[in-house]
Automatic annotation (TrEMBL):
SUPFAM superfamilies registered for this protein in UniProt: AF2212/PG0164-like (SSF141694)
Record's protein name: Bacteriocin-protection, YdeI or OmpD-Associated
Organism for this UniProt entry: Epilithonimonas bovis DSM 19482
Segments passing through the bilayer: none
InterPro entries: AF2212/PG0164-like_sf, DUF1905
Gene3D superfamilies: AF2212/PG0164-like
Domain of life of the organism encoding this protein: Bacteria
Amino acid sequence: MAQPITFSAEIQQHQDMNAGYVFFPFDTVELFGKKGQVKIKAIFDGNAEYRGSLANIGNGHCLILTQAIRKQISKSFDSVDVKLWEDKEERVVLVPEDVQALLDQNEKAKEFYDKMSYTHKKEYIHWIDDAKKEETRERRKVKMIEMLLEGKKGI
C-alpha cells in the first residue's frame, strides 16, 4: 500500500438532499498523475472503510460520503478525518449463482452487463441482494434483465 494521505474536512451537504461529500484539499495531478476520476480506498474517522473514487468537479475533486458511511461514523454534516490512498486493485463484482445463471440464459443482457463499469454492476447486484423477500429478489432479477436489454446502465 502506498503512503496514505490524511486530512480533516467538513462534510458538505449536496443541495437539499441527504447526500454528503468532502472536498479533496490536494492536487490529484501532483499526487496521482491524474486529472479525472481517481479510484481510492479510504477510512473515515479511523473505522469506516470505503472503496470509491475522487470525482473531478471542475475546480478540484471531492469524495462522496454515502449515507451508510455517515451512519457508520454517526455523522451527518460535521468534520471527518479521512485517510485515503489510490486503489490500484482490480474491482470485481461477485455475481450470485442465481443471477449468473439468468445472465447466462440471456446472451445480449450478459454482453451488456459484462461491458458495464464496476459501479453499475455493483449497483445491480446490490439492488438484487438487498431484497428482503425471495419474491422481490426474483422480480428484481427479471427486471434487471429487462433493463439490461434496454441498455440501462444504472438502477
